[in-house]
Amino acid sequence: MNDLSKQEYISEINRLNKIIDVLATRAEQGINSESSDFSLFQTTIALEEKVRKRTEELRDTQKKLVESEKMASLGRLVSGVAHELNTPIGICITSASLITEITEEVHTALSDNEITESQLIEYFSSVNETVDLIANNLSRSSTLISYFKQVSVGNSSEEIAKFNLKEILDDVNSIYINKFLSRNIIFSIECDENIELTSYPDALAKILSNLIAKSLDYAFDEESSGKIIIEVTQDDESIKLLYRDSGKGMSADVSSNIFEPFFTTNRSNGNTGLGMFILYNLITQQLNGDIQCTSELGKGTTFVLSLPNLNK
């Protein structure tokens, strides 16, 4: 949803609110003036019809804007996949062509009995290096395709279940406790032991593990200490999970793009930039929730997850 569309949507909501205010004002006037009862009734009916029509139009507009944003997001994803796959596949094609070329040269030299032992050794060495290069880039391509498949959360076979949230948090803690100790990271959980959620427990555990892994990889240096805190509150229909680390934090430009596909500040080390995008999709699509990120350089990062109870 672009900024202009959002502004138009907000303007329409404000217009409806004004119409409702007019209805309320005229209703008050009608109470104090018996002679205007019939006129008030006619005006009320007309205004209610306008509100109904505008509400329907707004709903249709909202659906179109949501679909438009989904298509735009899909377009960015497909474009990113094509770009990311183009490099390793291009390297494989170039390397295969090189092997073909030098093999033809060696074959010709063998046919003419003009090849030396040193030339054969050089040939085998070149082939081995090139084959390793091809294998590495095919492996990278395979990894990218695997990430791409994870984006489609509809493929999950996990069933909705009712579970104790504190137990899930404790399970995740047990996975990382040795790393926390070795890195001098204090991990704190503030969650009532009786809070239960009806959702996808494995998906939630994966999300929390991803957030912790990101904190350990990016928020804290190897020698620095710090804190990771998870706070959970509950209302009648949903759960609010606040995840906060005391690490390096992020600039506004990085935090505003953190959920975009293929966005990464660590591409030189092989990061695909799909991890947080997959996490966002899991939360918004599979768990039907929401996630917001706030961060400031030198002041850590906070993620706020809103998770509703799902129907079985």
From TrEMBL:
Domain annotation Histidine kinase: ranges: 80-311
Protein name: histidine kinase
Catalytic function, reaction form: ATP + protein L-histidine = ADP + protein N-phospho-L-histidine
Domain of life (superkingdom): Bacteria
Enzyme class per UniProt: transferase
InterPro entries: HATPase_C_sf, HATPase_dom, His_kinase_dom, HisK_dim/P_dom, HisK_dim/P_sf, Sig_transdc_His_kin-like_C
Keyword Ligase: no
A Pfam short name: HATPase_c
Key words, A-Z: Phosphoprotein
Gene Ontology terms, MF aspect: phosphorelay sensor kinase activity
EC number: 2.7.13.3
